[in-house]
Amino acid sequence: MPLSLIANHVPRLRADERGAVSVMMGFLLIPLVGALGLGFEVSNWYLTARGMQNAADAAAIAAATNGGSNYDVEAKAVAAQYGFINGANNISVTASNTAACPSGGFNCYSVAISGFMPLFLAQVVGYRGDATLNGAAQKQLSAQAVAVKAATPFPLCLLALGGNGIRTNGAPKANMGCNVMSNTAATCNGSNLGAPIGAAHGTNKGCGTSQYSNLPIAADPYIGLASKIPADPCGGVYPQEPTKKSGSALPGSNQWSGFQSMSGNVVVCGDLQLTGNVTVDAPAGAVLVIENGQLDTNGYSLTTTKGSGLTVVFSGSNSAPYTHAPTGGGTLDITAPTSGAWSGVAIYQDPKLTAGVDISAAGNSPTWNITGLVYLPHSSVTFSGAVNKSGYGQSCFVLVVLDITVNGTGSILPNGACIQAGLGVPTGAIPGRGALVL
Hints:
The protein is an alpha/beta fold. 16% of the residues lie in helices and 37% in strands.
C-alpha cells in the first residue's frame, strides 16, 4: 500500500473510538468474575451457617423435650436429619444438659454444631480463612442453641401436701375423675383412681391414667387465708358434747335446727351439734367459725339455700383433745361463696391445727354434697363414698389434705366448673416441650 494512502488513513484511525469499550471490558472482566465468584462463595457460607443454626435450634429443643439420659442421642439424631452428622465430613455435634441458663442456673440444654468450608476464589483476594484442615486453608462455621425444659401446668382436684401422700386400699371402683398430685409419694393398688393425670414429687406407683414421678412440689395456694380468720372471742370457754348421757348438755347456742339467717362472721365456741335439719340463708356470704369444736351433723342435714354462700372454718388450739372437723351422719350440702376473701372455700381447717384434725370417713359420714374447696392441711383422711356438688352449686370440688387413703368406691362426681364457683384451683406441672432461650 502506498505510503500516501496510509498517511491518509492515520488521522481517521485516531478519531475512530469503536471497540474501546471491549478493550476496557477485557481488563475489567477478570476482577468482575472474581467478585461474582467471591459473592457466591460467601453466600454459600451464609446458607450453610443458617442451616447449622436451624439444626442446632431443633436439636436443642429435642434434647430439652427428651430430658432423659439419652438426650444427647436424640439431639444428634435431629441434627443428622438436617444433614449435619456428627463425625462425618468434619462435622462436630455436641450436646450438654448442664448449660448456663440466661435466667440463672445450669440446667439448660445446649447443642453446638461446627464444620469447615474449603476456600476457592476467596484466596484470590487474599483471604486465608480462619482454620487449617489437612494443610488447606478453611472457613470454620459454627452454631449454638440453648433450650430449657418447659413445664405444662395442670389443674388439681386432689392435693396431698405430705405424710404418706396418696394411697388406695383395694379400691377397684375408686374414680376421682380429675387430676391428683402428691407432694410426697403416691401408691395405688387395685385402682388408678380414674385420674387423667396422677403425679407425685416422689415415686408414683399406679396412680392416674398418665403417671408421673419426680415432679416439682405443687404449691399450697390457700395457706394465706388463715390470716382472714377472726380473733377468738370465746374467753377460753369451749363447751363439748357429753361423752356420757349423764354429762352436761350443750348450751342452746351450740345446738342448731331450722332456718339460720347469716352474714359476716358467726363464731361458735366449742362443739356445734345439729338437733334437726338446718337451712342456712346467706345471700351475701357468711363464715361460720367453730373454735375448738366439731361440727356434728348428728344424722341431719346442713344446707345452703339457692344463692347463698357458706364457709365453715375450724380454728382453735392443739392444747386439748378437741375435734376440729365435721362428724356424724346426715349430709353437708354446702355451696361456698363465689366472691370475697373466702371465695370458693367451703371448709377450712386452720393450718396451725395439727391435732384432732384427722377424718376417718370423709364423704360418707356425713355425706358430702359440696361445691368448693375442702382444706385440711394437717389431716390424714380416709376417703369413702362419693362427693357430689351441692344442691344449688356448680360442679366444683377440690380437696387439699396432708395425706389420704381412698377406700371402696371413693369418687368425685363430675367436676370442672370451679371458675364459675369462684375457686382458683391448685396446679401441678408436668414436663412439656423444650423452648429456646438462646
